[in-house]
Structure formats: structure tokens, C-alpha cells
Amino acid sequence: MAESIPVAHPHEHGHAHHEPGFFQKYLWSTDHKMIAMQYMFTGMAMAMIGGFFAYVFRMQLAFPGAEVPFFGLVSPAEYNALITNHGAIMIFWVAMPVLIAAFGNYLIPLMIGADDMVFPRLNRLSYQIFLISALVLLSSFFVEGGPFGGAWTMYPPLSSNAEYSQTPIGTTLFIIAVGLEFIAFLMGGINFIVTAMNSRAPGMRMYDIPVVVWMIVIASILFMASVGPLIAGAAMLLFDHNFGTAFFDPSRGGDPVLWQHLFWFFGHPEVYVVLLPAVGIVAEIITVFARKKLFAYKTVLYTAFGTGVLSFTVWAHHQFVAGIDPRMANVFTVTTLLISVPVAEMMFVYIATLYGGSIQLTTPMLWALSFIAEFLIGGVTGIFLGASGTDIYLHDTYFVLAHFHYTFFPIAIIGTFAGVSYWFPKMFGRMMNETLGKIHFWGTIIPFNLIFIPLFILGAAGEHRRIWDFTQFPELAIEPLRRLDQLATISLVVMLAFQSVFIINFFWSLFRGQKAPRNPWSANTLEWTTESPPPHGNWRPDEMPSVYRGPYEYSVPGREQDYWPQNVPN
Amino acid sequence: MSARPIATTRSAAGMPTGRLAVWWVIASEIVIFGGIIASYVMFRLSHESFTVDAASTKMWIGATNTFVLLTSSLFAVLGHKAAEEGDGPKAARMLYLTTLGGLIFLVIKTFEWGDKISHGHTLSSSTFFSFYYTAAGLHALHVAVGMLIMLIVSQSAKRNLELHRVELIGIYWHFVDIVWIFLFPLLYIAK
Amino acid sequence: MIERLVPSSATFSGDIDFVFSLIFWLVGFWFILSEAVFFWLILRFRRKSPGQRAQYVTGELKSEKRWITIPHLLVLVCDVFIVFFAVRVWYDVKQALPTAPDQRVVRIEAQQWAWTFTHPGPDGVLDTADDIKKVNELHVEVDKLYHFQLTSKDVLHSFSVPVFRLKQDAVPGRVIVGWFHPTRTGEHDIQCTEICGIGHALMPARILIETPEQHAAWMAENATLSVAAVADR
């Protein structure tokens, strides 16, 4: 396509009269890399809060009525607030900012050979709105009445009427926080989409774009196409709660189930919004560390598009027993099981990429491979829930919870650790410690499975969700089931303890790690052609790269080196 | 930091960056308004009582407002034409007239809503009016924001700077128009 | 498989368990196969010596694509199979409303935070003087078909009886009708399975599936009380 010759700037950034001060450089920057870091660190801080909440409520479940260290006694209201905010934080303030905004902001300009996003100031504004949304949510923990405790799904009438929820201010703040987060990501999405579509390096055709860039762009489109009705719905919920409207109040002609449709019409595509970037990160890593071209690149793209489109047709599988017309349920069973096909295909393609490889089990590769192994469990257990007949029993049990943690955890946690351990050298100019990386890996993965496999069994045994204390239910209060809950909790504590290894590794490497070369992994994509870390503008204006081939030309027969960077003419 | 990135000068998709961005903004707005409108339509179909309330919206006010917005869009088109010809000051004048149209729209709406409220039709008086005020209010918000952006764009345009933005804000304004063209029959004509 | 963990006490609970097991084996097969191939590939193609070269496989050749398309189609076939059985059970439980000459009815009202069960009493008709209202106790007779009328007084709740494998959300402003047919006597948990506020965990209820004699005795004892209560007004 027509590309313009980059304009040489009359003055070099950084050679100007003064170096940017702390404020300009770190807090007011429009540089996509700095904004990416802001999103990443904010997301990680929120992850610690969300993780702490999980610790507290799981301790209550394992040892009901006991004082939880660092928290105290957990009341039923507090329990509900903890699970509500754990869910909301992990999805909206951890998975999305880290996977989409942090990696998207960091990688897209670098991987397509651009010097920044096309709208740097809009980019900065999107982070600022995001930060405000996080602060609004956190403020809800300290208001009179306490934080909202009606689950991240906010179903009315519980959420639309403060007499029912007993959290008048908390509810309002929760809705506003979520709304602001949506607006921040709509703004960020414009940057990702337009930059990736328009600002590619000369010579980079559609199929030369690295998969992770595609995935983040498709995810942004999916988000944008699905969030609209929920923004409308959130406004309606806020009005019901604060201005006496009755959109969802059945006693005055409203319909609570309407909210559910608006919510899940977004909610289901949303899970693919976070899945796709993680899957993209995995693609980048397995190709590099197996030294292999991605198997059927185009198929990967088609499955991503297919999944995206189909994701708009499955939403009511969350509402099978909600009081929808039972005939509708059959449609959604069909569409839901159908969507398992492109997702499975994507996994098969990744597994096929390993065939004939020369696999190095570095820390990033361990994470990327474990994504596949663990996500498969999440995927197959979804079938039980998508099948309407079995969902009658499994709905709102811990089976659902274990299913979605086997999808979300690989996405948000494994995907993040994979991406961070892989791009850390580029981002910070230092290498992370491999030994600590591996210890952290095993110390996370093994306990992870010990948390959630018991929860599948508990769900199948009828243990229902969002329950503060099971001692009231004689059939669930029996010893074997209580022991499983305790196993899950203890495993969580162990897993959380091992996260300290990551924090130590991260900060120690940041300051004392071995200096990283430009391309420590001998990878092909454009970000590895510039310095580690890249300067402002990523490359010198007269050294902006051009592209001559696709991103996965590894182990090409007849070539001496087993990699062939995109920007090398021949 | 204030210089525009090289990235903005490229157009691998064949469309200038700014225009591409505005179309994506519009796409996301379509889904938001689509959500409210779809919810309204579903409610309307299942609630007979809506016809009682719907009868009290005055079609002639809605029609006048439709005429005002369409006329203002005409000025936006003339502004775009002037910008293409490089006549910044004229483009700015056309933008002022467009903004004036928006202002007249909002003033008429203010009187209309004042009258409705004095007759007891408020946001919470019935579900029809909940939808009415929410949808039309969201639209009015977009009109106001559009006016603001238009004034900002006209300040650069009158000095023959950033003339491409005249077209972009014009696209946004046409979208705001089209949303009204959907709302008008739903809220004022369908009784 | 679920029957190993939870008793199966309704006519349709066994059907639901069957679909669960079917999915388990079908999906389990694919899962084990995928993981096995996955781990085998990692072991087989591990880098054992520096400079060990990988193969150049594009995945665009038909012979290569076949490794994906064939499993992909087989998965689709399994899905169709599962859909058939799942939809059949769904139809039976949620779409069909069987009738029987001796069918019973019961009204279930959920609220923050308790269950009110209205049993029709000896005359078998709801909303008559001999109705028996109980809070958090549902008494039913084994081997009888029951229709239930479910509603909520305030927020969303959900009526769940694990031993029946039954679940249905209670929506305020609506009466949702369903059915069950108990097959075993016993006393079991009733759960609320839709978060309904602070007391969501504090509204456990019990279902007592009684023999005809037990049920008749319970009814006789309680019906006189309620008729007497009405007469006293």
C-alpha cells in the first residue's frame, strides 16, 4: 500500500535544551512505552489487592468464623464485597490493562516499526481516565455502607435498589468505576486499531504482522463492538439506583432480565477480548523458543476472527435458568458448543507448531507452554456448562468457578508472566534471573492446579457459589468436602507466597540484572532490532525499519542462521 | 514531545489517520446508541402502556428540531467544502453556523423538557419517559460535545491550520444527526 | 459420576447425570489425547544439543493441514452428539410440563432471606383455607409428580435442589412454573443459588421427601392447625 517516506525531524528528541523532568518523563509522558509501564504497574498493584481479597475469602471458607490474619473476622456482607471486588478487579483492572493496554501500548508501535501511537495525547488521557476509574473503585471500600457486594455481574434488583443491597454509595461508585474503565479502553482501542492499520513499516503486508498485534487489534474491535449496550445498561442501572427510574424494576414495569442480556452480550465477548492477547503472546514465545515458523498463520487469524464473530452469539448460556424462554436455550447450546471448535483449532495449531522444533525450556517458554496445557482444561470443562442439560445442575456451583479460573488464570496470570519474562530485556535493558524464574513458575503452576481441581469436585458435589459459610448446609458441611476447601485455600496461600519470588526477581533484575543486548532471544520481530530499552521514538528517524518478510521465518533451510529478522533485506 | 509522531504520517490502510479514527469512534457510538434503542424497542413491544405516554411527546417540536439539525449539517458540509478549497476563514464561519444550529436545537429542547416536566413527565414518572430522557439526553450530550469540539476546530481553521479536522468533526456531526433521525420517529412519531 | 457424590432422587436427575458422564468421557478422551500429544512433542523435540536445528514447517500444505482439520471435524461430530443429548434432557426438564391424574402443586416464594413453601393441604388446591405455609421446609411425597410455582418477593433468588439436579431462578414480578418427581425418600438441602444480598448464605432450606404415610400424617397435623388458625380470625 502507499506508504509515505518518514519525515526527518528538524530537532532530535532528547538533544533538546533540557532533559524531561521526573514529572514529564514518568507521570505526564505521551510515549507509548511509558504509558504501557503505567498500565502495567497499576495493573500489577491492583492484582495484589485482588489476590489479597482471594486470600481473605478463601481463609473464611476453609476456617469459617476464624479470624483471618491481616484482616480479622469476615462478616457475610464483607464476604460478598470481597468476592465481588475480586472478580471485578481481576477482569477490569488487571487482565485488561496488563494484557491489552500494557502489552498493546508497548508492542504495537515497536512490532510494526512505528515511533509511537498515532494519538499520543489521547493515549495519555486514556491512562489517566483508567487510573481515575481504579481510584473510584478503591474509594468504594471506604464509604459508609461499605463497598458493593452484589457480584461483578451486578444483577438488579439487588444492584438497582439500595434497600436490597444496603450499599447505597458503594453501588454508585462501583458502577461509575466500571463505566470509566470502559471509556478508557474505548479511547485506548482507537489508538491500537488505527496505529496497527495505518502506521506499519514500509513493506509490512497484512500477513507480515506479528500475531500478537493482530490479536490485540481484534480484541479492541471486539471490545468496542460489544461494550456499547452495556454502557447504555450501566447508565440505566445508575438511573434506577439514583434517580428513581424503573428500567429493571418489575414492580413498575421494568425487567431485571434485560440487564442480564445487556451485561452478557458484552460479558461473553469480553472473555475473548482478554483471551486473544494472551494467545498472541503465546504465539510469539513458542515460535522463538521452538525456532519454528508458526503452523498455519492464516488459520490462526481465521480462528481468531471466527471466535470473535461467534462470541456474539453465545451470551445467553449464562442465563439458561434465569427465566429466559426455554426454547431459546437450545439455540445457545448449539452456538456455545460451536464456538469450542475454533478455539480448539487454535490450540491444535499451537501444539502442531511444536512438531519438529528445537525446543528450549526457558522461563518464558515454560509459561507459554503451560498456558496451552492449562487452558485446555478450561476449554473442555466449558462444554459441561454450555450443554444446557448439565448446566441446570452445574450453574452457580463451584464447577463454573473452576472452569473460568482455568481459562482466566492462564489468560491473565500465565499470559502476563509469559509476556513479562519474554519482553523484560527489551523493556528494561536487563535480563531476568532464569533460576528464580523457574522457581516462581513451578511455585505458581503446581499450587494453581491444587486450588482449582478440588473446586471442580466440590462443584460437582453441589457446592454453590458466593456462599460465606457452608456449615449451614448439612450435605456440604461434611468432612471430605470441607477438607477439599481447605486444600484449595492452603494451596492458594502457597501460591501467593511464591509470588514474592517474582517480585524479588523483577526488582532485583531491574537494577542489578545482566545488561541485555538488542536481541537476546535471536528473534525476528522488529522490536528486537532496536536498543534495549528503546529510545524515545524507538529508532532514529533515519533508521526506521522496513520489512521484507513475515515474522516467523525460523530455521529456514539453506540459511546459516536459524532466524531471519523481518527488517533484513536478504 | 509536542511534535507529531512519524506514525501519524503513514497510511498503510489507504485512509488518513484522523479519518480512520473518527470512523472507529462512530462505530463504537453506534453500538452504545444501538444498545439503548434496542432496549427501548423491546420494552415498547412488550408494554402497551407506552402508547399512553408516547402520545404526549409533541411531534411538531421534534420535527422542528429535526429540521434544525439537518440544516446545521448542511453548514457542516459547506464548511468541509471550504476547507478542501483551502478557505480556512470561510470554513470557520460555516462551523459557527453549524454550532448555532446545535445551540438552537438545545434551546428548543430545554423549553420542550421544561414544559414536559411541569406537566409531571419526569425521568422517573414512567418507563417510557425513563427511556425518552435517557436516549434523548445522551444524544443531547453528544450534540453539546460536538459543538464544543467544533468551536475548538474553528479556532485553528480560521488561521488556515489543521483544515483536515473540519471534515472530521463534520463526520461526527452527521452521525449525531443520524442518531436523531432514528430517535425522532421512535420517540415522537410512533404512537 | 455425580451420583457418586450426590444422591439421585428425581426422575430426571439420572438423565442429567448421564449427560454429565457422556460429556466427561467424550471430552476426556480429547483432553487426554491433546495433552499426551502436547507433552510427547515437547519431550521428542527438546533441544538436546546446542545448534540442534528445527524443521521448517509452514502448515500451509494440505498434508500438514490435515492434522488439524481432521481432529477439528471429529470434535465437531462429538459436539453434535453432546448437543443432541443435552437438548433432550433440557426439553424434558424445562420445556415439557408433564401431567398426571394425581399431580401435586406447591408454591415457592423466595425473599431476603428465607423460603416460604405453600403446600395445598388435604384438598389438593392452592389458595384455600387448608393450605400449609412453612418457612424453609418443603414437604413432598415420594413418587408423586409435583408442579411448582416459583416467584420472588424482592430480588433475584434461585431455587436449587441438588439431589434433583434442579435449579431455577426466581424472578420478582413473575411466576415461573416447573416440575419434579421425587423417587427416593430422605431429607436434603435446598439452596439459594443466585446472590441475593448479605443473607444469601443464610437462607438454607430443607426438602423432606416423605413416604405416603409420613406425608399424610404431616399434612393432617399441620392442616388442622392452619384451618384452626383461619377459623380463629
List keywords for this structure.
heterotrimer, A: mainly alpha, Cytochrome C Oxidase, Chain A, 15 helices, globular, C: alpha+beta, Immunoglobulin-like, five-stranded mixed beta sheet, 4 helices
> Which range best describes the helical content of chain B: under 10%, 10-25%, 25-40%, 40-55%, 55-70% or over 70%?
over 70%
Total E-strand runs of chain A? 0
Number of domains of chain B: 1
- CATH C-level name of chain B: Mainly Alpha
What is the name of the CATH superfamily of chain A?
Cytochrome c oxidase-like, subunit I domain
SSE string of chain B, helices as H and strands as E: HHHHHH
Number of strand segments of chain B: 0
- In terms of DSSP E residues, the strand content of chain A is under 5%
Q: For the report, how would you describe the main beta sheet of chain A?
A: none
Describe the structure.
- The complex is a heterotrimer of chains A (570), B (191) and C (233).
- With 570 residues, chain A is mainly alpha-helical.
- Chain A has helices at residues 22-27, 32-62, 76-112, 120-139, 162-165, 168-198, 211-243, 256-290, 297-310, 326-354, 363-386, 388-394, 398-428, 434-460, 479-512.
- In chain A, α2 (32-62) runs parallel beside α4, α4 packs antiparallel against α6 and α7 packs parallel to α9.
- Chain A is globular and about 70 Å long.
- With 191 residues, chain B is mostly helical.
- Chain B has helices at residues 17-46, 50-54, 59-84, 88-118, 127-157, 164-189.
- The mean pLDDT of chain B is 91.
- Chain C has helices at 2-5, 13-44, 62-95, 212-232; strands spanning 104-111, 114-119, 132-135, 137-141, 146-152, 157-161, 166-170, 176-180, 186-192, 205-210.
- The longest helix of chain C is centred in the middle third of the chain and has 34 residues, at 62-95.
- The radius of gyration of chain C is 26 Å and the shape is elongated.
- The mean pLDDT of chain C is 94.
- The chains are: A mainly alpha (570), B mainly alpha (191), C alpha+beta (233).
- Chains A and C meet through α3, α8, α9, α10 and α11 of A and α2, α3, β7 and β9 of C.
